[in-house]
Amino acid sequence: MHNSSHHHLPIHRTVLDNGITVLCVENRAADIIAARLFLRAGTRWETREKAGLASLLSNLMTKGTERWSAVEIAEKVESVGASLGADATTDYFLMSLKTVSSDFAAILTLAGELLRSPSFPEAEIDLERFLVLQSIRSQQEQPFNVAYQHLREAMYPNHPYGVSSLGTEETVTQITREDLQHYHQTYFRPDNLVVSLSGCIDPEVAVRLVTEVLGDWEIPATPLPQLRDRAIAPNPSQQINPQPTQQSIVMLGYLTPSVQNEDYIPLKLLNTYLGNGLSSRLFVELREKRGLAYDVSAFYPTRLEQSLFVAYMGTAPENTAIALEGLHTEVTRLCHTPLTPEELQAIKNKLLGQYALGKQTNAEIAQTYGWYETLGLGINFDTHFQEAVRTITAQTLQQAAQRHFNNSPYLSLVGPEEAITQASLPL
Question: Within 10 Å of residue 292's Cβ, how many Cβ atoms?
């Protein structure tokens, strides 16, 4: 297992008797240890009626245990200058901590207690719910978020990916303390946990510490619920949402495969080519050359189930129709015009360079390996990803584009009524 930016720091992997996977990279560059505790839980494991549950839970993880109040927990962390927080995404739940080496055992012990016995005080639930509702309302005032929300709802009609991880006003209002406790009891268990460490620590010491803190956590008698992949049939539609905004948001979406699919890495390269940075195709063609875009980009998130590939633009309302045509043209062009050798090499260099830069700190190293392990890709995916990027051909990219961009896209438009009702694509 090599990591060129860190002079081949090896990664150690151990599975404890109670099913906890422990990953450790010993990195003596600074007297710091970072840990990422991943659980296979998150938006994907919610029901539509309880959307936002995992996110609300993550806000409450540091707000009280059977022994400590929110203030006492904050004081324990801040008094030693450490950081400790929790977060929920579509495909995993995460607790993150970082300390100087001498405080690591104490803060890991605290994190273990937060993970195992959060108390969900009613007053804290009410406060966090209020804050989440404020966030949801502020997102509804941002045209980009409105467009993306409508796009996702259209693409994932009966799937948790169709809703923001924050949930909706309706669902968040309905979440109860019992819901939080039930979700916690169901998914927070040792055989569903990956502990990924990086920093100034010997791997054997790391395993011993994790065993001391979490080794007595027993696997519940009930089996862990297994989610089936819910296949989504493409059904492209046009979402038109008039709003009196300063600019129009034009968004195209394509259903694309999960991280397990062979097209995952080709699509990451196509995303880099189209939408990554000031030298990207969309930026150069639509903003630099034609002056159409205030903001233009593409993204393709890594997902355990079917993902989506999105190209979007913010433009002056009077340019909505021409912007839509320009975006669509650039995406479909990938199906019939192969990249030149120079273009291919440039995006490989860019993607691999960004990949290396995203793995510099202990926190980033712990995140990368823990994430791969949690997604079921395994820690060797780090090497596999880089080698696959280097060897991919322009033909492979073109074939991936033909498989995913040849059909009609989903379309989401937000902007002044007159401007957006005139813009459409032949479906």
Answer: 22
Mean pLDDT, rounded, for 234-248: 93
Whether 10 has a pLDDT exceeding 90, the answer reads yes
Longest dimension (CA), the chain: 66
Judged on CB neighbours under 10 Å (0-12, 13-18, 19+), 334 is buried
Q: Which two tokens stand for residue 394?
A: 């322009």
Rounded mean pLDDT of the chain?
94
On the question of pLDDT at 427 being above 70, the answer is no
Q: CA 112 to CA 106: how far, in whole Å?
A: 10
Q: What is the mean pLDDT of residues 15-31?
A: 97
For the residues 304-312, what does the mean pLDDT come to? 96
* CA contacts within 13 A on the Cβ side of 272: 22
Query: What gap in Å lies between CA 392 and CA 305, rounded to an integer?
Result: 23
Contact 151, 412 (CB under 8 A): yes
| pLDDT at residue number 4 | 41
φ, ψ (nearest 5 deg) of residue 124: -70, -40
Q: What would the pLDDT profile of 171-204 be if each residue is shown by its tens digit?
A: 999 999 999 999 999 999 999 999 999 999 999 9
Any bridge partners for residue 32, and if so which?
100
pTM over 0.90: yes
Structure tokens given for 178: 């019992």
Q: Which two tokens stand for residue 106?
A: 């104490």
